[in-house]
Design goal:
There is one protein chain. The N and C termini lie far apart (43 Å). A 5-stranded mixed β-sheet has the order 2-1-5-3-4, covered by helices on one side. It has 5 helices and 5 strands. With 176 residues, it is of the alpha+beta class. The longest helix is centred in the C-terminal third of the chain and has 14 residues. It folds into 2 domains: 76 residues, Beta-grasp domain (Ubiquitin-like (UB roll)), CATH 3.10.20; 68 residues, Orthogonal Bundle (DNA polymerase, domain 1), CATH 1.10.150. Helix 2 packs across helix 5. The structure holds FE2/S2 (inorganic) cluster (FES) (2 copies). One FE2/S2 (inorganic) cluster binds next to loops.
Length: 176
């Protein structure tokens, strides 16, 4: 990356959830602030701001990354996905989001955006995860109010659904 002047605003252009976006950023601007305040993508949450809690997790070129440890200028030319980009349509949940809802895998939802983003990236690489592997994915995220059991259940069910396996009969197709 070329040397950047600390006081100067730099034009940063990248793809956010399939749409090309641009904003002016000083080199010290964090990706969290660029996304939330610069672009209105407030689904990316800010908790610890030092890489521990996972609430700010986004995907950069398909890989999970802590937005609080990423500078906005590092997003130049990248494909960025936030929780807003996971659902197939504006008023439809993704398979994983629907499973989280069915299994009551969230309460306040503060941690949820980052968890969904991490699980989405992981299932792309490993469509048949074991419970232990999912626990390892979730170990990078702190949840203070729901606990992890329901999240694991939801993730296992969503993975099965994405593999095309039949859902339990108790589920309505509209829930998927
Ligand atoms: S806010 Fe980024 S890891 Fe906690
Ligand atoms: S649902 Fe509240 S912190 Fe996880």
């Amino acid at each position: 990356m070329p040397r950047l002047s600390a006081a100067t605003q730099h034009r940063v252009t990248f793809t956010l959830n399939g749409r090309t976006v641009s904003l002016d950023a000083q080199p010290r601007l964090l990706a969290t602030d660029a996304l939330r305040h610069g672009l209105g993508a407030t689904g990316t949450h800010v908790g610890c701001e030092h890489g521990v809690c996972g609430a700010c997790t986004i995907q950069i070129d398909g890989q999970p990354a802590r937005a609080c440890l990423t500078l906005a200028v590092q997003l130049e030319g990248k494909e960025v996905t936030t929780v807003e980009g996971l659902a197939p349509e504006r008023d439809r949940l993704s398979v994983m989001q629907a499973a989280f809802r069915r299994h009551h895998a969230l309460q306040c939802g503060f941690c949820t955006a980052g968890i969904l983003v991490s699980l989405d990236a992981y299932l792309r690489e490993e469509p048949s995860p074991s419970e232990q592997e999912l626990r390892e994915v979730l170990s990078g995220h702190l949840c203070r109010c729901t606990g992890y059991t329901q999240m694991i259940r939801a993730a296992l069910e969503a993975a099965a659904c994405l593999r095309g396996e039949p859902l339990p009969q108790t589920l309505e197709p509209a829930d998927v």
